[in-house]
Write a structure and sequence with these properties.
single chain, UDP-n-acetylglucosamine1-carboxyvinyl-transferase, Chain, 4-stranded mixed beta sheet, globular, 25 strands, 430 residues, alpha/beta, 2 domains
Length: 430
């Protein structure tokens, strides 16, 4: 895909539903008694992989586009699939479903695409094994494909080395089936969608500090779930509004869960003109409309406890830093190395290609902003967040930018390019 600087972005946009919440609504609905009605479900490839996996285990799911109906099988109602469960490119599906499958009365093989087969699964295999799970990495490399033999589980208190909602959620979901209380303590609080939604479905969940606890459940109950817009998808339009001179964008109905809103804090620290409007609570998940206007951004430091609240937005933050004045340091972000790509190395590679002054560090990068950016050939490494980041950055660069593997945005935002161009066209520029 070829992109170039067109001019200001103006208008309103509603981004697709939150990916994390969409995954969990299908999973918990499948384990619940009765029907779960999901509004705003993200129709991206990752979330469709979750639907496919549960359908293969006997769950009836009606995907009507705007609404997804999950006719739950109950906590103990999943059936042995006739085929391998393919999680596609979805780390969330792979890791969370492993916690559920560990407690079933059947065996199953879990796999995914080439990217998933390189992503580390030891981080869930270790705690689940401590609970009594029988999980084997078929190739012996602590990655998928995984052979999971269902068994009886017991509650544990696990101290995680990483702040990861996927790790925490896998353990909590296994804890639904355990013979006692299960607790997970993290170094920092990761996103808490599982805890919020499990409570909505009737599970006994509590949190204290960085520790989440769950009691064994006898039953979950179907719910109506309103999925807010994904702040990780909104991030690209927030950045575009701030970076491109003359821009003003209203992004409607965005989830602003405090364990996900680190981007907003960093933007403000960089001098962003950013206003939250129509702030409201919705089924336990707070939302707001976000108004952004072009701003003279400056460097900042991003690290510590805020990192888990913006881990998916760090590529876009790095690009914003390249367009800002002064130095930005991103640290404590080693988790970026084990996403769909090594996002630290890939961001340094591509920002450098566009003329930015960026240095890779062990757990992040140093960006010396303010240098003029120019078009370049961008290798997305088939990482949706890299592709979307550079589609926005191209709007601040002179000349033509070519994004290789641009279609990977289908994983989370199939209409991204169309909607980005729509904001430009509203101003009559094309």
């Amino acid at each position: 895909m070829e992109l170039k600087k067109w001019g200001p972005l103006w208008g309103e946009i509603t981004v697709p539903g939150d990916k994390s919440i969409s995954h969990r609504a299908v999973m918990f609905g499948s384990l619940a008694k009765g029907t779960t009605e999901i509004h705003g479900f993200l129709q991206g490839a990752d979330c469709l992989s979750t639907i496919s996996c549960f359908e293969k285990m006997g769950v009836s799911i009606e995907n009507k586009g705007d609404v997804v109906l999950v006719h739950g099988n109950g906590l103990h109602g999943l059936k042995k699939p006739e085929t391998i469960l393919d999680c596609g490119n979805s780390g969330t599906t792979t890791r969370l479903i492993s916690g559920i499958l560990s407690a079933q009365d059947f065996d199953v093989t879990l796999t995914g695409d080439a990217s998933i087969q390189k992503r580390p699964m030891k981080r869930i295999m270790e705690p689940l094994s401590r609970m009594g799970a029988d999980i084997t990495s078929i190739r012996g490399n602590d990655c998928a494909p995984l052979l999971i033999r269902g068994t009886k589980l017991h509650g544990i208190h696990y101290t995680s080395k990483v702040a990861s909602a996927q790790v925490k959620s896998a353990i909590l979901l296994a804890g639904l089936y355990a013979d006692g209380i299960t607790q997970v303590t993290e170094p920092f609080v990761s996103r808490n969608h599982s805890e919020r939604m499990l409570k909505l479905f009737g599970a006994s969940v509590s949190t204290e500090g960085t520790t989440a606890s769950i009691s064994p459940a006898t039953q979950l109950y179907g719910q109506k779930v309103m999925v807010p817009g994904d702040i990780s998808s909104a991030a690209y339009f927030i950045a575009a509004g701030l970076m491109v001179p003359g821009s003003e964008i209203l992004i409607k109905n965005v989830g602003i869960n405090p364990t996900r809103d680190g981007l907003l804090h960093v933007c403000r620290a960089m001098g962003a003109d950013l206003t939250l409007l129509n702030v409201r609570g919705q089924e336990g998940e707070p939302t707001a409309d976000i108004l952004v206007r072009h701003s003279a951004l400056h460097g900042t430091t991003v690290g510590g406890a805020i990192i888990p609240t913006l881990i998916d937005e760090l590529p876009m933050i790095a690009a914003m830093a390249a367009a800002a004045e002064g130095e930005t340091r991103i640290c404590d972000a080693g988790e970026l190395k084990v996403k769909e790509s090594n996002r630290i190395a890939v961001m340094v590679e591509n920002l450098t290609a566009m003329g930015a002054d960026v240095t890779e560090t062990e757990d992040g990068m140093i960006i010396r902003g303010g240098k003029p950016l120019h078009g370049a050939v961008i290798n997305s490494h088939l990482d949706h967040r890299i592709a979307m980041t550079f589609a926005v950055t191209a709007q601040c660069a002179e000349g033509l930018t070519t994004i290789q593997g641009a279609d990977c945005v289908n994983i989370s935002y199939p209409r991204f390019y169309e909607e980005l161009m729509g904001l430009i066209q509203k101003r009559g520029v094309c």
